[in-house]
Amino acid sequence: MEEDVKKAAKTRTMWRRKLDPTQIDEYIHRHNTIWPELLDFIKEQGVTNYSIFLDDNEVFGYFEHENIPALMDQSNLPTQLQIDWEESMRPLAADKISDDLGTKRNMQLVFYVE
After folding, report:
1. Contact by Cβ (8 Å): 54, 28
2. CATH number of the domain encompassing residue 63
3. Is residue 27 part of a domain?
4. pLDDT tens digit string along 64-104?
């Protein structure tokens, strides 16, 4: 089972972020009108099944990717598109001063069923 979890962790990633409670509607609106070039970029990276869930003022993102280590490698510099999106979304987050440029700490996968 542990080997199955490790294998699954290579292709499934989840992140979370707290939102400013007064900006939740705007966060939803921006994702309903996501920039087409950002959507294309996400798909070009091989990301599939990307979902964002809202729970009160916290959002949880989930996506699948064939090569998570390359995608999540912190040494990869963000593209200008990613920087622009993150800067546009920063005012909606609870932590408006973070300089992480959207970097998310991956959650540890402990159970997986296919």
Report:
1. yes
2. 3.30.70
3. yes
4. 887 655 555 555 677 899 889 988 998 998 876 655 545 55
